[in-house]
Write a sequence for this structure.
């Protein structure tokens, strides 16, 4: 019996081990999520931490991973910081408006003569 020659499968290199994640990537992402969901004050810190993590990844010459997390943290930090600024502007305008409104109301009440 004649058997066909068996083809030798091409050698496949073993998979590479995963890259370690930059130290500041996970905290930056957590701060970004918390800055959007619960506490807008955390958003600028997420933006800053993401910038530091990105520098850390760039300085590692490809030895560190986590760029996707850092990018997401940066976007969340930027959006959260914009929302924080809008919240502050809204409340300042609201307090000034209420102060003017209550001041005008008091002036009107002062001009009304007392009943005899």
């Amino acid at each position: 019996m004649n058997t066909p020659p068996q083809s030798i499968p091409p050698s496949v290199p073993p998979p590479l081990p995963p890259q370690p994640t930059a130290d500041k990537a996970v905290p930056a992402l957590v701060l970004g999520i918390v800055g959007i969901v619960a506490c807008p004050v955390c958003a600028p810190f997420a933006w800053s931490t993401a910038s530091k993590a990105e520098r850390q990844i760039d300085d590692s010459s490809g030895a560190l991973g986590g760029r996707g997390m850092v990018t997401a943290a940066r976007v969340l930090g930027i959006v959260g910081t914009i929302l924080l600024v809008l919240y502050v502007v809204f409340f300042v305008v609201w307090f000034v408006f209420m102060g003017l409104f209550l001041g005008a109301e008091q002036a009107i009440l002062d001009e009304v003569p007392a009943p005899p």
